[in-house]
Amino acid sequence: MSSIIQLLPDHVANQIAAGEVVQRPASVVKELLENAVDAKATDIKLIIKDAGKSLVQVIDNGMGMNVTDARLCFERHATSKIRQAEDLFSLHTKGFRGEALASIAAIAHMEMKTKQDQDELGTHIIIEGSKFVSQEVAVLPKGTSFAVKNLFFNIPARRNFLKSDTVEFRHVMDEFQRVALAHPNIHFTFYHNGSEMYNLPAAGYRQRIVGIMSGKTNEKLVPVNEDTEIINVQGFVCKPEFAKKNRGEQFFFVNDRFIKSGYLHHAVMAAYDGLLKDGSQPSYFLYLQVPPNTIDINIHPTKTEIKFDDEQALYAILRASIKHSLGQFNVAPVLDFDRDANLDTPYHYKDLEAETPTIQVDGTFNPFTDDKTNQHYSKASSGSGSGSSSGASYSSGSNSYSGGYSKRVEPTASWESLYVGLETESIESSPFTFENEEVTSSLFNDNEIEQASQGTYQIHKKYIVSPIKSGMVIVDQQRAHQRILYEQFLLNMTVNQASSQQLLFPLDLFYSSDEMTLIEELKPSLETTGFVFEEAKTDHIVISGIPVNITESEVSLVIEQLLTDLQDGIPASSYSQNDTIAKSMAKSLAVKTGSYLTEKEQDNLVNGLFACKDPNISPFQKPTFITMRVEDIDKKFAL
Questions:
Q1: Where is this region: Disordered (predicted)?
Q2: Which residue, among 224, 230, 196, has the nearest Cα to 538 in the 3D structure?
């Protein structure tokens, strides 16, 4: 019987390896950029076309390769990073497996130009599907240039699985940002379809973060710095008030390598405990330096996951360092024992006692007595006033005062007579007019209250109960409002012309480059909902008009939620775009669980729900209400 196990040809093995290494154009970008960094380049250029499907080119000024290395680098498991197995536990470079170039060359048209500084001439190699087409000597500058064209040209099934250019471009942008953030000492430039996306000169960590994200990022950053025997933590976290709903701006770098770690992310969230709103995610850019022998990088094909020897210690140090930074920069609430010195008692008054004044009062004086008594009192007081015309005496030595009235007081029968005629006196007789302001206990009049009170009740600020003939209806207030808003937005976008309210002062909203790309594509659809864009620049937009049912404070929340919902790409058809935007805006603006509603608001919500075309489910296919018949309630009591 013949053998059934055979060795695979090299080109087949390379294509299989490419399935692990190269998943999309962003994978090629990652491998080529990391190779350029390992080559000790100080200037790296990334050029792509059609989101990397047609061209991915990386040009660097690194060490370059000689003729032998240039040919050998395309062989499987050929690498300059390791020599023996022990080197895997002491890695200081990005790549080390030696499969990247061989895998890329197996599924694309590849062109390489390389030259070392001491050589006069360089090497120019062209490969198509693992086959060497040509190799010749050329006059080249120092460094290496890789150009990958027509990705997956010989695997059409894999090419069909690629997403739209918008989605693929965002993945490329993510990989570029990760490498550029990890190496601020390198000058990076990025071009897409001939347009310059980034030009990042060599700088510090803060400048690199601000250059990649946006101009307003600088005021959001809080520095973190902690140095211990097992880990060195540097970087920045953002202030809690700038937290977002998505996790796009969260970066961990271990020994200058981007990683993903849910365990370390939990440590960051623990440091923000009590500072964030529900569902908000903080932004952070943290650079961790650990001994290479305490981590294992080779546990995932994409090398974005790392195994640590002592995760618990790293967790505690990271959490404590971030919490310390937030408290140090007065971001986190702390006990404040400082007091206002102006409220303290002056020293020269501290031992002095206040003198209690003595007051003499004539207990026999009565202003409501008749005129004779008042005259008698006036004479008596004037006689004892030591010549004072006012009948008053003051003794400075004893701090005593006695006073009397010499003014004639008109006699009154009784004190009640002072208020006679006030009820009948007309207001018009007075030279002054006063606004008659009636204080009421409700914002609505009695008729409106009677119309609004339809027997609706709110339970736990979540459900609205409304009686019907057969029993009662229990409505989920958040889902019901989502359905109402969704149909309103969809109607405005497809049938009616949405109305806008002009802002007195335009809004300036800042976003990162990839978010600005999404907003540019969504502008036509957003304008149909009522948004008016005055201008859109590279890092921010200016909004001068908003839909009538959105407040100015809700604009940033609506757009942020929309960007979060469209992370996986914008639908191709206009109807799908409108549907997605209407759902996202309804989710942002709907009344939330835990909000108190007045009886009138409850009634309007119930009536609005049952006026919808499809009141049974929310835009996200969840039931909006349930009904309970009287018979069902009777059965509960019959048990």
A1: 360-406
A2: 196
